Structures are given as C-alpha cells and as structure tokens.
Amino acid sequence: MMHSLDNLLAPSLRKSIEENLGKPALNKIEQRLMERHGIGVIQAIKDFYKLDSVLREFYGAGADGLETKILRNIIDLNQSKQSFDNWIVLEDQRLAKIFLESFADDDKRNILEVSMDEPLPISDILLTCKIPQTSGYRKINYLIENGLSMVNGFTMSADGKKIQKYQTIFNNIKMNIERKNIVVQVQLKKNPLVGSSILQVIQC
Description:
alpha+beta, 58% helix, globular, 12 helices
C-alpha cells in the first residue's frame, strides 16, 4: 500500500530529479522504469525500491550520493538526522504551499485537527466538523492525495462491511519564514516514518 509520506514527497522529488539530472536523463529513467516495471517516475518514487534499482543500473555506486542530493533539495537532512522525535524539515516551497493552503482552509484545518489524535471514519470526521458530505469528501480526498492524511485501521459497519479510518501523518507542525521562504517542520507519527520507502532507501 502506498504510504502517505511518499505520496507527499513524490511530486517534489520528481522535480528535483529533473533539476539535478536534466530532462533527457529523466526521460531515459522513465523509459527504463516502463520497460522493467510498467510504471512512470511518480509511481516509482512512491515505491522507491524500483526507482533505486534503475538509478543503480544507470549510475552504479554513485546512485547513493545522487539520491541523497535529490532528497536534500526538499528535506533538510542534517536537521532531520539530529531529530530523535520524528521531526523532519521540509524546505520545498511546493510542500510548504500544500500545508499552508490546508491550514488556511477552515474545513481542512478542522479535519486535520479532529483526526490528529485518533483515526476516524470519514463519516465521523464530517459529522464532528459539521461539513457537508460533498465538499467534505472532496477536501478529505485532497488531504489524502497530498499525503497529509493516511489510512490507519478499520472499523465495521452495521452491515458487516470494513470501513477505513483516517488520521493525519503528523503529531505536530511548525512553520517559519526564513529568507522569504517558508520552512515547514513536521513531527511525523511513527507509521508514516517507518513505512516510507523513500526514507528507508535514502538514509536520512
């Protein structure tokens, strides 16, 4: 299953790969991924072992340094290394914008706050937040697709069907402005940190 943290980082990582290697190299990597795994770069980033295998095929042992450089463009590896309580530092402005927009929207902010401490079914989240279903499902899907919320467990409905429960990927968040850039610090829950294929391959 796709992990929310990888979902959050994937678009920014793809951009970082293109900036570091150039579009022709990115096209070759994508072509090889299609040949070997039948997937594109974004999908391979979310299952990072597959991208790692292709990068090693092209760059050999140099893939280690390349992957670290690519990730460093969006995560401050040094600060993350020094953190012992699951804090990571996101410096990429695309990621910062996702967090800012989510917390600037009253409904999205309420959804995140309600589902931070415990996982809940979507129906319970919408009921607690008093959000209409149509707009509520759209906003929750935005948070899921952009990696701020994740599936965490199930509950059973009255007719015996499994219903997924959702929770934020983070316990805490800090936002600072440094040299006109917004830096977001995220204290991740254990599940997304341990489950991320990106951070398992690229040792932070």
